[in-house]
Amino acid sequence: MDFRSSDTITGPRTEDVLPTTATAAVKVVIVGGFGVGKTTMVGSVSEIRPLTTEETMTQAGVGVDDNSGVETKTATTVAMDFGRISLSEELILYLFGTPGQERFWFLWNGLFEGALGAVVLIDTRRLEVSFDVIGRLEERGVPFVVAVNTFPDAPHHPVEALRRALDLPDEVPMIDCDARLRASSRDVLMTLMRYLHSLAVPLA
């Protein structure tokens, strides 16, 4: 390759550089079934331009992917989403969104490596897609919170009814959210951090 004198390597963009005050970084995974809003949440809350691996859905997925309830969805994550948020001057969260279609779940093994905790996004219109997701987290022993993404046409259920349907222990936090809104998504992550802290600090 012919590099001319005017060619330069610019490095990361200014907004992508870590704050100089950062002293700790934590890996968090955003999981859930197909079309529950994982890419949306990472994109809404990330302080850097998020990395996405969305591809246009094709005929190859017909009869393989279950898109019941999200028939109008035209793109899907095929590897991961990635973003970053500073929860304080010292604490940085790295966010990894998983693919929702079951045929891509083999990628979860790498994405969960080193993760401190997870957010499970659910859609009350298609609650059944969350069962296997939660089961996989419990098998791995990954602490998680459940975030109910409030789609405009989604039915609202009492928290206790949702807990019973998902067979969730009382201590697992559950929170309503709108994955499109930065403040709402940030509240979910703060809930996860508080939960992880409570697990790390034994009661007196």
TrEMBL record:
<dbReference type="GO" id="GO:0005525">
    <property type="term" value="F:GTP binding"/>
</dbReference>
<keyword id="KW-0342">GTP-binding</keyword>
<dbReference type="GO" id="GO:0016787">
    <property type="term" value="F:hydrolase activity"/>
</dbReference>
<keyword id="KW-0547">Nucleotide-binding</keyword>
<dbReference type="InterPro" id="IPR004130">
    <property type="entry name" value="Gpn"/>
</dbReference>
<dbReference type="InterPro" id="IPR027417">
    <property type="entry name" value="P-loop_NTPase"/>
</dbReference>
<dbReference type="InterPro" id="IPR052705">
    <property type="entry name" value="Gliding_Motility_GTPase"/>
</dbReference>
<keyword id="KW-0378">Hydrolase</keyword>
<protein>
    <submittedName>
        <fullName>ATP/GTP-binding protein</fullName>
    </submittedName>
</protein>
<dbReference type="Pfam" id="PF03029">
    <property type="entry name" value="ATP_bind_1"/>
</dbReference>
<comment type="similarity">
    <text>Belongs to the GPN-loop GTPase family.</text>
</comment>
